[in-house]
């Protein structure tokens, strides 16, 4: 199973939906709520998001293996996790 990690906002409804998507699929994930971090840590997170996401600075910021998905996109999450194999 590939590693799933995300940067989220504690107040973001799309971030909550993203977390729920992974819970519903029983896929383990780790996350950091950006808005609950120190200013110093927020700067580090923004630098990482900018570097990995080709300048995209939106939430949720989801890393599945080596792939980045910015925003709530369950179809893309499923594709990257191999959940859509045999469907369509």
Describe the structure.
The chain has a single domain, classed as Glutaredoxin (3-Layer(aba) Sandwich). The chain is 39% helix and 19% strand. It contains three helices and four strands, in the order βαβαββα. The protein has a four-stranded mixed beta sheet, with helices on both faces.
Q: What pattern of helices and strands is seen along the backbone?
A: EHEHEEH
What is the CATH third-level topology name?
Answer: Glutaredoxin
Radius of gyration computed on alpha carbons: 13 Å
Please tally the β strands and state the result. 4
The CATH class assignment is Alpha Beta
Uncertain regions: pLDDT < 50 for 5+ in a row?
Answer: none
The CATH superfamily name is Glutaredoxin
Instruction: State the secondary-structure class.
Output: alpha+beta
Q: What share of the residues lie within helices?
A: 25-40%
Alpha-carbon distance between the two ends: 22 Å
What's the short version?
The chain has three helices and four strands.
């Amino acid at each position: 199973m590939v590693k799933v990690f995300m940067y989220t906002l504690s107040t973001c409804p799309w971030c909550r939906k993203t977390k729920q998507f992974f819970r519903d699929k029983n896929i383990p994930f780790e996350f950091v709520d950006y808005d609950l971090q120190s200013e110093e840590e927020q700067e580090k997170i923004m630098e990482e998001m900018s570097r990995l996401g080709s300048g995209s600075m939106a939430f949720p910021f989801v890393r599945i293996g080596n792939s980045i998905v910015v925003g709530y996109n369950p179809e893309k999450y499923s594709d990257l996790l191999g959940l859509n194999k045999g469907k369509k």
